[in-house]
Amino acid sequence: MGTTSYVFFGLLLIPLIVFLIWMIKQDKKKNYLGLFFLLFGIVIALYTIIKLDKNFMENNGQVAPKSSSFK
């Protein structure tokens, strides 16, 4: 993953963690099953995004598209 990907994840991950902590404190019934599924989905999404980004960066060495040769 590139540096911009880490910055992007950092900017989104910090508010997500704060939101989850706030959500846990608001739950009066202490039903953690919903939070478990939410966290499980987040882990699956992060794994998928990191794996796809890694495969893309390995297979495509160039970041910018090639210029067209139309005349």
Automatic annotation (TrEMBL):
This is Uncharacterized protein. Keywords: Membrane, Transmembrane, Transmembrane helix. The chain crosses the membrane at residues 6-24, 31-50. It comes from the Bacteria. The keyword Membrane applies.
